[in-house]
Structures
1.
Amino acid sequence: MRATLAVLLGLGVGAFAQGAATAASKVAAIKTAASQDAVFDILSNDSDFVFDFNTAKPVTGAAGQVIGSNAANFPALTNQGVSITIGRLGEACGMNTPHTHPRATEMLYLVNGSIQTGMLQENGARFVYNEVHANQAQVFTKGSIHYQQNMGCDPILFVAALSNEDPGVSSIAQRFFGLPPAFVAASLGDVGVEEVVGLEAAIPDNIALGTDECLKKCGITRGQQPTTQRQPRVAGNALPSNSSGSSN
Ligand SMILES: *[C@@H]1O[C@H](CO)[C@@H](O)[C@H](O)[C@H]1NC(C)=O
Ligand SMILES: *[C@@H]1O[C@H](CO)[C@@H](O)[C@H](O)[C@H]1NC(C)=O
C-alpha cells in the first residue's frame, strides 16, 4: 500500500493522491486521538472546519451533478455521524437515478423548483411517491432505494443531510447490471445474455436525463449520455468472450 502510494507520488500523479493521503492520515489521527482537544490540534487550521462545494469534485452526468462531502474529502466529519450532499438536477428533467445509501438516512431539502421522488424500502414495504416543492424536505429511510427527478424545465438545487460521515452510494442499475451477465439474465427471467450486455452498455451516468414525459415537455432529445459509472469487469463478472458489448 505504502509502496503503491510512493510509486504514484513518484510518477507525479501528484496533487490529488497527495491530498487524499493527507486526508486519510488526518482521519486516522482523529480516530486514534485520545480526546476531542487533541482532534482540534489535528484540525489545526480554522478552515479545516469549512467544506467548499465550489471546489469539491462533482459526480457529473448528462443532466446535472451531485457533490458529496464525507470524511474522505472533509476529515473534520470523522466521528461526527453526519454529512451533506448537494444536487443540481438539470438544466431540465435531471434525474438522480435510483440508488441507496447503505449507511445513512437522508433528509433532502429542496431549495427551489419541484421534484418527483420515489422510495422503496425492503421487500414487503409499499412504494412511496411524492411531489416535493421548494422549501419542503423529505426523509429517505436508511437502505431504501430512492430517486429524485426535476419535473421542470429549469435547473433545481437540493441539499441532502445524511446521518453518516461515510454514507456510501450504491447506484442500482450500475450495480445490478455489474453482476455476471448470465446471472442477471437468469434473474430477469426470459432474457438473453446479449440483451443484458446491450442494456448494461447504455446505463447513463448520474445525473441522467429523466422521463420521456418531462423531456417532451421541455423539448429535449435524449441523445447519447456518458456511461463511465458502470461496474468495472474482472474475471468473475466478465462479459461473455463472444459478446458484442463494450467494456468500460
Ligand atoms: C489555513 O487554510 C487556509 C485556506 O486553506 C490557507 O490559506 C492558510 O494558509 C492556512 N493557514 C495555515 C497556517 O496553514
Ligand atoms: C434555482 O436556483 C438556481 C440558481 O440558484 C437557478 O439557476 C434556477 O433557475 C432556479 N430554479 C428554479 C426552478 O427556480
2.
Amino acid sequence: MGFVADNILQLKKKLPDTVTLVAVSKTKPVELINEAYQAGQYDFGENYVQELLQKYVHLPKDILWHFIGHLQSNKVKYIAPFVHLIHGVDSFKLLKEINKQAIKNNRIINCLIQIHIAREETKFGMNENELLQMLSSADFNELKNIKISGIMGMASNTSDENTIRKEFAYLSKLFHSVKNRFASTHNLDFTILSMGMSSDWEIALQEGSNMIRIGSSIFGKRHYTHI
Ligand SMILES: *Cc1c(COP(=O)(O)O)cnc(C)c1O
C-alpha cells in the first residue's frame, strides 16, 4: 500500500462515521488522487479552477469534488456542471452567479458560506452580520437553484490552541443559531459545519465540526511550483 492510502485509512480510523473527510488534493498529481480513491476516498477538495478541470477529466466520475478555494464569479461556469459542494462562498454576488449557472445546468448547487473567524485580515469570509442580513433578504429568497448547506471557516494560523478553539467554538455556535433561526427557509438546510485542517482538525471535531479538509497529512507537503 502507498503512503496516501495508508494515511487515509489511519485517519479514517480516528473519525466518527458522522464526520466527512475531504481529501485536499491541490497541487497533487492524479496518480495520488487515484491511490486515495482506490482506498475508498470519494470526497476531494481543490482550490484552483483550472487545476480542478484538468483533474476532473482524468479521474473517475463518481468522485465528489469540493471547491474550497476563493472562487471568482467569472469562473463559476466552468465548475457548475459537476461540482459537489462550494465551500468558500463569501458574497451575495458570487451566490447569485452560482444560482445563474446552476439554472443553466438544471441543477441545485450546494454551497457553504465562508465565515471570517481568524485574526489574519488576508483570509476571506463574511462576518456574522453580513450572513444574517443576506439570509434575511428578499433577494436571497429568490435564489431557487442554490442550497446553503452550512458554513465553513479557517482558524488563525497559530500554535496557540486556545485561540483556535475559541474561533471554532464561535463558528459552531453561529452554525446552530442560524440552523434554528432559518429552519423553514426553502434554500437553506444547515447540515454541514466545515472546519478543521491538518494542524487543527482534532480541536475542530471537539468543537462540533462534521466536515474536515485535510491536505498535507494525507498527501505530504505541497510544492506550489508546478501549477
Ligand atoms: C489547502 C487547504 C486545506 C488543507 O490544508 P492542510 O493544512 O494541508 O490540511 C484546507 N482548507 C482549505 C480552505 C485549504 O485551502
3.
Amino acid sequence: MFRELWEKLLYLIMLFWQCKYDDKMDAGSLNKTQYSGKWHFLMVAADSDNSLLKFRAMDSSVFLLTPMDDTEMLLLQGQIRLSQSMKCITRQWTYHINNETQELILEGQPDLKTEIFVKKNNDCILLLETQEKGSETFRRLMLYDRSPTATKYSRLEFEHRANCMNLSAIFVLEQAQAPCEI
Ligand SMILES: *[C@@H]1O[C@H](CO)[C@@H](O)[C@H](O)[C@H]1NC(C)=O
Ligand SMILES: *[C@@H]1O[C@H](CO)[C@@H](O)[C@H](O)[C@H]1NC(C)=O
Ligand SMILES: *[C@@H]1O[C@H](CO)[C@@H](O)[C@H](O)[C@H]1NC(C)=O
C-alpha cells in the first residue's frame, strides 16, 4: 500500500522534472579509486530497438573496472550471462582517455566515443555511447550500479534522462539467475 503510493508520488514528481542534468564528468578527472571495482550493468536506453539487439541476449552482466597504472587507460572486464543458455562469457575492453575531448575512446573503435555521467553520493555511473560514423550508427545510455538492483527512483530517473536525450527504446536486464562471478 505504502509502496504503491510512493511509486505514484514518484511518477507525479517526475512529471515536473526538467531535462537539466549537469553531471557530465571529464574522463580525466574521474576519481579512479572511487570508481574502480565491481559494477552491475542494469539497463540501457537507445535511439532505436535495433541498437538494443545485442543487449537482449544478456540475462545479466557484471563488470570490473581497473585503472591502468601511470596511463590514461581503463580496463573493463565483463562477465555476461546469456539469457538463452544461461552460460557466462568473458569480454574485455580497453578505454583510452582522450585528454582533449575528455571522452573515453574504446581501443579498436575510434568512431565510438563514450561520455561519463556520475551523480554525487550515488553508487551509479552512466555511460553515453555515440557512434556517428561507420557501418552502424547509434546512441545509447547505460546504467551501471554497485548494487545488482536499481531502486525505483534511479530507474525512473534513468527513464526520464533517456527521454530527455530522445532515447526511447529501453531494455532492463532480466537477471533471472545470479550474476556470473567476477
Ligand atoms: C577518491 O575516492 C576515494 C575513495 O572514495 C577517496 O578516499 C578520495 O578522497 C577521493 N579523492 C579525491 C581527490 O576526491
Ligand atoms: C595527453 O596527455 C599525455 C600524458 O600526460 C601527453 O603526453 C599528451 O601530449 C596529451 N595530449 C594532448 C593532446 O594534450
Ligand atoms: C530531441 O528531439 C527533439 C525533436 O526532434 C529535438 O528538438 C531535440 O534537440 C532532441 N534532443 C536531443 C538531445 O537530441
